[in-house]
Write a structure and sequence with these properties.
This protein has 304 residues and is an alpha/beta fold. Helices cover 38% and strands 23% of the residues. It has 10 helices and 12 strands. The protein has helices at 3-15, 18-25, 29-43, 59-87, 107-116, 132-138, 201-210, 224-232, 276-287, 298-301; strands at 48-49, 56-57, 91-97, 120-126, 143-147, 156-171, 181-182, 192-195, 217-221, 238-241, 250-255, 261-269. Strands 3, 4, 5, 6, 7, 10, 11 and 12 form an 8-stranded mixed beta sheet that branches. The protein starts with a helix and ends with a helix.
């Protein structure tokens, strides 16, 4: 089976006439008829009832028409992407984002970056369970936004974006919202939501347990939207990155003696194999003023 046979069959399905289908296909009628016969032999059944002016697709013909149209659509999509790459046209950049990283810090950045990359479309995906390296090295993704992994693959180029503290998250009218800096022991008085996807979850639990405090979660989830809604909707509390606490209905408070923080980075494949657009996007990300309204740059925080 080849794409010519598929194209001939689809023209025949459109016209139900061998002469008209041959004209659309740019071949002689005998050539088209032989190609359809070979296709039927390969598929093991007739595709069209040959009945003069009353020709019609068989049941098999109707089924394979649907699949062949899907196949040709995919082929056209491949050609479209190929033309974009070779002609410098519209480019789609597929970027993975860790589920614990919210949009609060990135919507403004993407908007400003796309002003400088007008031919680019950004398509965001959830970071895969195996981490960013397999998807980046295989080419399924062009970049990943996640927390820094000390075991990152050496084939990746990693650019730091910002650091952020882990803080208490609570509703705007929560009793703890009236306190500037909350004590660890105060946390035990309120229902706790356990963020199972938190990269520093073990360190959080260890620090709190080290203060002789036991938190008893009423909800454990890796869905960040559920965490925020549960906290904003009542008396529950959670511990989350400070930028995530900027969500509607939430506020944040420092926790006394609590110094955990994470570094958010963007990763791409190192070297010239990465598309020029994603290298430009990573460069723009590395010089973006992430610290505005949030404090110091990563390099400054590491000195503190």
């Amino acid at each position: 089976m080849d794409f010519n046979q598929v194209s001939y069959f689809l023209h025949l399905a459109d016209t139900l006439n061998f002469t008209a289908a041959a004209r659309l296909s740019g071949v002689s009628q005998p050539s088209l008829t032989r190609a359809i016969r070979r296709l039927e032999d390969e598929l093991g059944g007739a595709l069209i009832y040959r009945d003069g002016k009353n020709s019609r697709l068989t049941g098999l013909g109707q089924d394979v028409e649907v699949e062949f149209r899907r196949m040709m659509g995919a082929l056209e999509s491949v050609h479209h992407h190929s033309r974009n790459w070779t002609d410098g046209g519209h480019r789609v950049l597929d970027i993975s984002v860790a589920p614990t990283i919210g949009p609060e810090a990135f919507t403004t950045f993407f908007a400003s970056a796309l002003e400088q990359l007008p031919t680019v479309e950004i398509r965001l995906h959830a970071l895969e369970a195996g981490g960013e390296a397999p998807a980046l090295l295989s080419g399924r993704r062009h970049a990943a936004i996640a927390t820094r992994d000390p075991r990152a693959d050496r084939k990746l180029e990693i650019r730091p974006l910002f650091r952020e503290r882990l803080v208490l998250g609570c509703a705007l009218d929560h009793p703890l919202a009236r306190i500037e800096t909350v004590r660890v022991e105060d946390l035990a008085d309120y229902p706790y939501v356990d963020r199972m996807g938190c990269e520093l979850r073990d360190q959080v639990r260890s620090h709190i347990a080290g203060q002789g405090v036991t938190l008893r979660p009423w909800l454990r989830t890796d869905r960040e939207d559920w965490v925020r809604h549960a906290v904003a909707d009542g008396r529950s509390i959670c511990i989350l990155p400070e930028r995530c606490a900027a969500s509607t209905g939430l506020t944040s408070r420092s926790i006394a003696g609590f110094a955990l923080e994470r570094e958010v980075v963007i990763s791409i494949v190192s070297g010239s194999t990465a598309p020029v657009e994603i290298r430009k996007l990573a460069q723009l990300a590395s010089i973006h003023p992430w610290e505005e309204g949030w404090g110091a740059k990563p390099s400054e925080l590491s000195k503190q």
